[in-house]
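# nightly structure sweep
# worker-07 picked up a monomer target from the shared queue
# config: single-sequence mode, recycle default, output format = structure tokens
# input follows
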Amino acid sequence: MGAKILVTYLLLMGFFICGYWITQLAGGFLFLGLATAVGETYIAWHILAELLTGLLSLISAFLLLGRHGLSWRVALFTCGLLSYTGLNSIGWGLYNDPSLLAIFIISSLGALYGFFYLLLKAEI
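# output follows
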């Protein structure tokens, strides 16, 4: 049951993260390319990191479904990335848009669940 929850979580996070940023990029969000800044932060590297996290989330889910030998290791790494992304997003939400906090908290809890599930139950 835990593996099914983890695979579902990884698929959802991968689709949501990639879908969000692809939509933003298609809409011209990085209008200055790598020099685009939000406040005093260059956002392009953040977007790249989140897109890679989303892609690894999808890859991890498919590796787990296929019972690939490296699936648990890749999924553990991905849950670490998703934990960072979720917790960082909570900070962003507190400062910029508190209406998104519930989504960020749920995604953080899911990543932490996956991380500890893999540490405790998986054959790493």
